[in-house]
What does this fold into?
Amino acid sequence: MLGLRGRLWLGAAALAAVSMFAGCSADQPRRAPPVEDRGLGAGSFGTAPVTATPAPVVPAAKPLPGIENAGRPGFYTVKPGDTIRKIGSDNGVNWRDIVRLNNLDNPDLIEVGQVLRISPGAVPHTPPAAPAVAATPSGDPVVAGALPPVAVTAAKPATPPSGVVAPVVPPPGPSGEDEVAFIWPASGTLLASFDEAKNKGYDIGGKAGDPVLAAADGRVVYAGAGLRGYGNLVILKHNNTYLTAYAHNQSLMVKEDQTVRKGQKIAEMGNSDADRVKLHFEIRRQGKPVDPSRYLAAR
It folds into this structure.
Protein backbone atom coordinates (compact mmCIF):
# COMPACT_ATOMS: atom_id res chain seq x y z
CA MET A 1 0.00 0.00 0.00
CA LEU A 2 1.25 3.44 -0.92
CA GLY A 3 1.20 6.14 1.65
CA LEU A 4 -0.37 9.51 1.23
CA ARG A 5 2.84 10.99 -0.14
CA GLY A 6 3.13 8.21 -2.76
CA ARG A 7 -0.40 8.72 -3.97
CA LEU A 8 0.15 12.45 -4.34
CA TRP A 9 3.29 11.84 -6.38
CA LEU A 10 1.47 9.48 -8.80
CA GLY A 11 -1.36 11.97 -9.29
CA ALA A 12 1.07 14.76 -10.18
CA ALA A 13 2.86 12.51 -12.64
CA ALA A 14 -0.43 11.57 -14.36
CA LEU A 15 -1.44 15.24 -14.62
CA ALA A 16 1.90 16.10 -16.25
CA ALA A 17 1.45 13.30 -18.79
CA VAL A 18 -2.01 14.56 -19.75
CA SER A 19 -0.73 18.10 -20.18
CA MET A 20 2.11 16.88 -22.39
CA PHE A 21 -0.34 14.94 -24.61
CA ALA A 22 -2.52 17.97 -25.01
CA GLY A 23 0.47 20.06 -26.02
CA CYS A 24 1.50 17.56 -28.68
CA SER A 25 -2.02 17.53 -30.09
CA ALA A 26 -2.00 21.32 -30.43
CA ASP A 27 1.30 21.29 -32.31
CA GLN A 28 0.33 18.47 -34.68
CA PRO A 29 -3.43 18.62 -35.53
CA ARG A 30 -5.12 15.38 -36.41
CA ARG A 31 -5.62 14.91 -40.14
CA ALA A 32 -9.04 13.91 -41.46
CA PRO A 33 -9.13 10.70 -43.56
CA PRO A 34 -9.31 11.24 -47.34
CA VAL A 35 -12.83 11.63 -48.76
CA GLU A 36 -13.78 9.76 -51.88
CA ASP A 37 -15.37 12.10 -54.48
CA ARG A 38 -18.57 10.46 -55.64
CA GLY A 39 -19.82 13.34 -57.71
CA LEU A 40 -22.68 15.78 -56.98
CA GLY A 41 -25.43 13.22 -56.70
CA ALA A 42 -27.75 12.81 -53.75
CA GLY A 43 -25.91 11.80 -50.57
CA SER A 44 -22.48 12.95 -51.84
CA PHE A 45 -20.33 15.66 -50.28
CA GLY A 46 -20.64 17.95 -53.30
CA THR A 47 -22.97 20.97 -53.49
CA ALA A 48 -26.37 20.12 -54.93
CA PRO A 49 -27.37 22.16 -58.03
CA VAL A 50 -29.85 24.98 -57.36
CA THR A 51 -32.90 25.12 -59.64
CA ALA A 52 -34.16 28.68 -60.25
CA THR A 53 -37.84 29.22 -59.58
CA PRO A 54 -39.48 30.56 -62.76
CA ALA A 55 -41.07 34.02 -62.50
CA PRO A 56 -44.87 33.97 -62.42
CA VAL A 57 -46.50 34.61 -65.80
CA VAL A 58 -48.67 37.76 -65.70
CA PRO A 59 -51.37 37.68 -68.37
CA ALA A 60 -51.29 40.65 -70.74
CA ALA A 61 -54.02 43.26 -70.36
CA LYS A 62 -56.97 42.67 -72.66
CA PRO A 63 -56.77 45.13 -75.58
CA LEU A 64 -59.69 47.52 -75.96
CA PRO A 65 -62.14 46.59 -78.73
CA GLY A 66 -61.29 48.10 -82.11
CA ILE A 67 -58.05 49.75 -80.89
CA GLU A 68 -56.32 48.81 -84.15
CA ASN A 69 -58.68 51.21 -85.99
CA ALA A 70 -57.91 54.29 -83.84
CA GLY A 71 -57.57 57.42 -85.99
CA ARG A 72 -58.90 55.79 -89.16
CA PRO A 73 -61.67 57.54 -91.16
CA GLY A 74 -65.12 56.38 -90.13
CA PHE A 75 -64.06 55.29 -86.64
CA TYR A 76 -64.46 57.07 -83.28
CA THR A 77 -62.45 56.68 -80.05
CA VAL A 78 -64.67 56.79 -76.95
CA LYS A 79 -63.91 59.67 -74.55
CA PRO A 80 -64.91 60.20 -70.90
CA GLY A 81 -68.59 61.13 -70.63
CA ASP A 82 -69.52 59.69 -74.03
CA THR A 83 -72.70 57.70 -74.63
CA ILE A 84 -73.86 56.00 -77.80
CA ARG A 85 -76.56 58.67 -78.29
CA LYS A 86 -74.07 61.51 -77.78
CA ILE A 87 -71.54 59.96 -80.18
CA GLY A 88 -74.29 59.52 -82.77
CA SER A 89 -75.58 63.09 -82.46
CA ASP A 90 -72.07 64.62 -82.52
CA ASN A 91 -71.13 62.73 -85.68
CA GLY A 92 -74.46 62.80 -87.51
CA VAL A 93 -75.08 59.08 -87.20
CA ASN A 94 -78.15 57.26 -85.91
CA TRP A 95 -77.11 55.64 -82.63
CA ARG A 96 -78.91 52.44 -83.64
CA ASP A 97 -76.57 52.18 -86.66
CA ILE A 98 -73.54 52.38 -84.33
CA VAL A 99 -74.95 49.53 -82.24
CA ARG A 100 -75.50 47.44 -85.38
CA LEU A 101 -72.10 48.21 -86.96
CA ASN A 102 -70.25 47.22 -83.76
CA ASN A 103 -72.46 44.25 -82.72
CA LEU A 104 -72.97 45.80 -79.28
CA ASP A 105 -74.97 43.56 -76.93
CA ASN A 106 -75.45 46.42 -74.45
CA PRO A 107 -75.41 49.95 -75.98
CA ASP A 108 -74.95 51.44 -72.51
CA LEU A 109 -71.71 49.51 -71.89
CA ILE A 110 -68.79 51.17 -73.71
CA GLU A 111 -65.24 51.81 -72.48
CA VAL A 112 -63.07 54.91 -72.65
CA GLY A 113 -60.49 54.28 -75.37
CA GLN A 114 -62.69 51.78 -77.21
CA VAL A 115 -62.84 52.45 -80.97
CA LEU A 116 -66.28 52.31 -82.59
CA ARG A 117 -67.12 52.04 -86.27
CA ILE A 118 -69.53 54.91 -87.04
CA SER A 119 -69.64 54.78 -90.84
CA PRO A 120 -70.93 51.81 -92.87
CA GLY A 121 -68.28 52.55 -95.50
CA ALA A 122 -65.38 52.51 -93.04
CA VAL A 123 -62.93 49.69 -93.70
CA PRO A 124 -61.55 48.03 -90.52
CA HIS A 125 -57.81 47.48 -90.33
CA THR A 126 -56.74 43.90 -91.01
CA PRO A 127 -53.32 42.95 -89.57
CA PRO A 128 -50.98 41.57 -92.27
CA ALA A 129 -50.43 37.82 -92.23
CA ALA A 130 -47.08 36.65 -90.88
CA PRO A 131 -44.69 35.72 -93.72
CA ALA A 132 -43.95 32.04 -94.23
CA VAL A 133 -40.55 30.92 -92.90
CA ALA A 134 -38.52 28.18 -94.55
CA ALA A 135 -35.13 26.65 -93.69
CA THR A 136 -32.12 26.69 -95.98
CA PRO A 137 -29.89 23.62 -96.31
CA SER A 138 -27.61 25.21 -93.72
CA GLY A 139 -30.50 25.39 -91.30
CA ASP A 140 -30.80 29.20 -91.31
CA PRO A 141 -34.41 30.47 -91.50
CA VAL A 142 -35.31 32.42 -94.63
CA VAL A 143 -38.52 34.39 -95.12
CA ALA A 144 -40.36 33.11 -98.15
CA GLY A 145 -40.27 35.58 -101.01
CA ALA A 146 -37.41 37.61 -99.51
CA LEU A 147 -34.97 39.06 -102.00
CA PRO A 148 -31.22 39.52 -101.55
CA PRO A 149 -30.21 43.06 -100.60
CA VAL A 150 -29.76 45.36 -103.57
CA ALA A 151 -27.91 48.66 -103.52
CA VAL A 152 -30.33 51.46 -104.37
CA THR A 153 -29.17 54.69 -105.94
CA ALA A 154 -31.43 57.73 -105.73
CA ALA A 155 -32.84 58.56 -109.13
CA LYS A 156 -31.92 61.95 -110.54
CA PRO A 157 -34.82 64.24 -111.42
CA ALA A 158 -35.58 64.38 -115.09
CA THR A 159 -34.06 67.43 -116.77
CA PRO A 160 -36.35 69.14 -119.29
CA PRO A 161 -34.89 69.80 -122.75
CA SER A 162 -32.99 73.02 -123.17
CA GLY A 163 -35.25 76.02 -123.61
CA VAL A 164 -38.35 74.24 -122.24
CA VAL A 165 -39.80 75.50 -118.95
CA ALA A 166 -41.22 72.73 -116.78
CA PRO A 167 -44.83 73.42 -115.76
CA VAL A 168 -45.50 74.13 -112.09
CA VAL A 169 -48.00 71.61 -110.68
CA PRO A 170 -49.91 73.02 -107.66
CA PRO A 171 -50.31 70.73 -104.64
CA PRO A 172 -53.66 68.93 -104.43
CA GLY A 173 -56.28 70.91 -102.52
CA PRO A 174 -59.29 69.75 -100.50
CA SER A 175 -62.12 68.22 -102.45
CA GLY A 176 -65.17 70.45 -102.89
CA GLU A 177 -67.60 67.58 -103.48
CA ASP A 178 -68.98 67.74 -99.93
CA GLU A 179 -69.41 71.52 -99.77
CA VAL A 180 -72.98 72.61 -98.93
CA ALA A 181 -74.83 75.87 -99.67
CA PHE A 182 -76.60 76.68 -96.38
CA ILE A 183 -79.44 79.15 -95.76
CA TRP A 184 -80.46 80.84 -92.51
CA PRO A 185 -82.74 78.51 -90.51
CA ALA A 186 -84.79 81.34 -89.00
CA SER A 187 -85.49 85.00 -89.79
CA GLY A 188 -85.10 86.43 -86.29
CA THR A 189 -82.40 88.68 -84.82
CA LEU A 190 -78.95 87.26 -84.11
CA LEU A 191 -78.67 87.18 -80.30
CA ALA A 192 -75.25 85.55 -79.92
CA SER A 193 -72.57 84.70 -82.46
CA PHE A 194 -70.07 81.86 -82.57
CA ASP A 195 -67.54 81.66 -79.73
CA GLU A 196 -65.50 78.46 -79.69
CA ALA A 197 -65.16 78.58 -75.89
CA LYS A 198 -68.73 79.56 -74.93
CA ASN A 199 -71.12 79.27 -77.89
CA LYS A 200 -70.78 76.52 -80.49
CA GLY A 201 -73.06 78.23 -83.02
CA TYR A 202 -75.63 81.03 -83.45
CA ASP A 203 -78.49 81.97 -81.13
CA ILE A 204 -81.34 83.44 -83.20
CA GLY A 205 -84.26 85.22 -81.55
CA GLY A 206 -87.96 85.03 -82.42
CA LYS A 207 -91.42 84.25 -81.10
CA ALA A 208 -92.74 80.94 -79.85
CA GLY A 209 -94.05 78.99 -82.81
CA ASP A 210 -91.88 80.72 -85.46
CA PRO A 211 -90.84 78.27 -88.18
CA VAL A 212 -87.42 76.60 -88.02
CA LEU A 213 -86.19 75.65 -91.50
CA ALA A 214 -83.72 73.04 -92.74
CA ALA A 215 -80.55 74.92 -93.73
CA ALA A 216 -79.86 72.42 -96.55
CA ASP A 217 -81.04 69.10 -97.96
CA GLY A 218 -80.38 66.25 -95.56
CA ARG A 219 -81.56 63.34 -93.46
CA VAL A 220 -82.81 63.48 -89.86
CA VAL A 221 -80.37 61.51 -87.69
CA TYR A 222 -81.77 62.70 -84.35
CA ALA A 223 -85.09 64.14 -83.19
CA GLY A 224 -85.76 64.24 -79.47
CA ALA A 225 -84.93 65.75 -76.09
CA GLY A 226 -82.31 63.31 -74.81
CA LEU A 227 -79.33 65.69 -74.79
CA ARG A 228 -79.19 67.94 -71.74
CA GLY A 229 -78.88 71.65 -72.50
CA TYR A 230 -80.42 71.41 -75.99
CA GLY A 231 -84.10 70.86 -75.24
CA ASN A 232 -86.11 69.60 -78.20
CA LEU A 233 -83.36 69.01 -80.76
CA VAL A 234 -83.16 68.12 -84.45
CA ILE A 235 -79.91 67.05 -86.11
CA LEU A 236 -79.62 66.80 -89.91
CA LYS A 237 -76.85 65.01 -91.77
CA HIS A 238 -76.14 66.58 -95.16
CA ASN A 239 -73.22 64.39 -96.32
CA ASN A 240 -70.17 62.66 -94.87
CA THR A 241 -68.69 66.05 -93.88
CA TYR A 242 -71.47 68.32 -92.64
CA LEU A 243 -74.37 68.19 -90.23
CA THR A 244 -76.52 70.91 -88.62
CA ALA A 245 -78.28 71.10 -85.23
CA TYR A 246 -81.45 73.00 -84.24
CA ALA A 247 -82.08 73.28 -80.47
CA HIS A 248 -84.63 74.66 -77.90
CA ASN A 249 -87.62 74.03 -80.14
CA GLN A 250 -91.23 74.17 -78.94
CA SER A 251 -92.22 71.23 -81.12
CA LEU A 252 -90.60 68.96 -83.72
CA MET A 253 -92.11 68.41 -87.17
CA VAL A 254 -89.84 65.56 -88.38
CA LYS A 255 -88.77 62.08 -87.29
CA GLU A 256 -85.50 60.17 -87.39
CA ASP A 257 -84.43 58.79 -90.80
CA GLN A 258 -86.75 61.24 -92.59
CA THR A 259 -85.36 63.01 -95.67
CA VAL A 260 -85.87 66.79 -95.76
CA ARG A 261 -85.32 69.53 -98.32
CA LYS A 262 -83.64 72.92 -97.94
CA GLY A 263 -86.13 75.46 -96.52
CA GLN A 264 -88.55 72.78 -95.24
CA LYS A 265 -90.12 73.49 -91.85
CA ILE A 266 -88.66 70.97 -89.40
CA ALA A 267 -89.62 72.51 -86.03
CA GLU A 268 -91.23 75.47 -84.26
CA MET A 269 -89.14 77.86 -82.21
CA GLY A 270 -89.44 77.65 -78.42
CA ASN A 271 -87.55 77.87 -75.14
CA SER A 272 -87.12 74.20 -74.14
CA ASP A 273 -84.10 73.96 -71.82
CA ALA A 274 -83.36 77.67 -72.42
CA ASP A 275 -83.91 80.96 -70.60
CA ARG A 276 -85.87 82.55 -73.46
CA VAL A 277 -87.44 81.79 -76.84
CA LYS A 278 -84.63 81.28 -79.35
CA LEU A 279 -83.12 78.89 -81.85
CA HIS A 280 -79.63 77.60 -81.16
CA PHE A 281 -78.15 76.64 -84.54
CA GLU A 282 -74.88 74.81 -85.16
CA ILE A 283 -72.95 73.76 -88.26
CA ARG A 284 -70.54 70.90 -87.65
CA ARG A 285 -67.77 69.86 -90.02
CA GLN A 286 -66.57 66.29 -89.43
CA GLY A 287 -68.17 66.44 -85.98
CA LYS A 288 -66.55 69.72 -84.87
CA PRO A 289 -68.50 73.01 -84.50
CA VAL A 290 -67.51 75.70 -87.02
CA ASP A 291 -68.41 79.39 -87.33
CA PRO A 292 -71.72 79.67 -89.25
CA SER A 293 -70.64 83.06 -90.62
CA ARG A 294 -68.31 81.19 -92.98
CA TYR A 295 -71.28 79.43 -94.57
CA LEU A 296 -74.30 81.74 -94.26
CA ALA A 297 -75.01 84.82 -96.36
CA ALA A 298 -74.43 88.12 -94.57
CA ARG A 299 -77.53 89.98 -93.37
Q: What stands out?
A: The chain is about 15% helix and 20% strand. The radius of gyration is 44 Å.
